[in-house]
Specification:
Elements lengths: L1 H13 L17 E8 L13 E2 L2 E5 L5 E5 L6 E2 L8 E4 L14 E5 L6 E9 L5 E5 H6 L4 E2 L14 E4 L11 E5 L7 H9 L2 H4 L5 E4 L9 E2 L15 H6 L3 E2 L11 H11 L3
Antiparallel strand pairs: 1-6, 1-8, 2-5, 3-4, 3-7, 7-12, 8-9, 8-11, 10-11, 12-13, 14-15
């Protein structure tokens, strides 16, 4: 768990140092989410495998469970080891009406082709123009197959472990996809400490972060419904309850935020989560 804490704490201190890894600012009038993905790097004498691989497909959801955009990666799209991808623009074509400026809250990355990739970090800028990042140390801490990547962030000594995604589970790799609640990896010192002290609040709640053995790019992520209650420092008001909160399936175009928790609980029961 210590390395995941270091990774999240690193975000608190060094977001300005990450500037070169973020996509360009979204132009006024444009509606999309800008994403970059970094593949881990191997040791200089490592010949057994390659941490680069096929670019994963991507899907984004808004806070209320509406899907807002998808990106289907072609089989010839590759992120080479030790390299950060070019900008991946996920246009908000699934909103109603299309291309409205809704903010992405959840992201699914799913391996769509057979060349596994080990992800060191992801950077993202949404319609709110705020830069966000996720590090592979989180996957490591939450049970992913991982590699001790040598990808160094700028001239810092921090080298996040990378998290493997693999469609065909070659070489025993377990997970095809991962889902991330982006807001929950906006770093504060207090949030980093919470994840250090309460591991379950980071790894045991499916909507926050979850690794999926076989979720396809068109799969449906669970979401927090209603949204979580959090403190001003972005810690959870009840971390133990969050660790037990498995959400409800997103993707229902008729879904609206409930008036009370009982409605959400009833939806969870009908969905088979409880």
């Amino acid at each position: 768990m210590a390395m995941a804490f270091i990774g999240i704490a690193f975000m608190v201190a060094s977001m300005p140092m990450m500037a070169e890894y973020f996509a360009d600012k979204i132009e006024e009038g444009e509606v999309y989410t800008n994403i970059k993905i970094a593949a881990g790097d191997t040791l200089a004498n490592e010949t057994a495998f390659n941490t680069g691989g096929n670019t994963p497909s991507i899907a984004l959801w808004a806070q209320d469970g509406h899907k807002i955009g998808t990106y289907s990666a072609d089989s010839d799209e590759v992120i080479h080891q030790g390299v950060t991808s070019n900008e991946i623009k996920v246009h908000h074509g699934d909103t109603d009406p299309p291309n409205t400026g809704r903010q992405a809250e959840y992201i699914l990355l799913s391996a769509a082709h057979d060349d596994a990739i080990c992800i060191a970090f992801i950077t993202l800028q949404g319609t709110d123009k705020i830069d966000r990042a996720w590090y592979g140390d989180v996957g490591y801490s939450c049970g992913a197959n991982w590699y001790a990547s040598r990808y160094k962030i700028n001239d810092q000594n921090y080298m996040p472990r990378c998290t493997w995604l693999d469609k065909n589970h070659s070489k025993g790799l377990k997970h095809r996809a991962m889902g991330i609640h982006l807001h929950d990896f906006t770093a504060t010192d207090a949030r980093a400490q919470q994840y250090q002290d309460n591991h379950g609040s980071m790894c045991d709640s499916q909507p926050r972060f979850w690794l999926y053995p076989d979720m396809k790019p068109e799969g449906i992520l669970p979401i927090y419904f209603p949204p979580l209650e959090q403190n001003q420092d972005l810690t959870d008001k009840d971390p133990d309850a969050v660790a037990k909160n498995q959400g409800i399936p997103g993707g229902d175009p008729k879904m609206e935020l409930p008036d009370d928790v009982n409605v959400a609980q009833e939806k969870r029961k009908r969905s088979g989560i409880d």
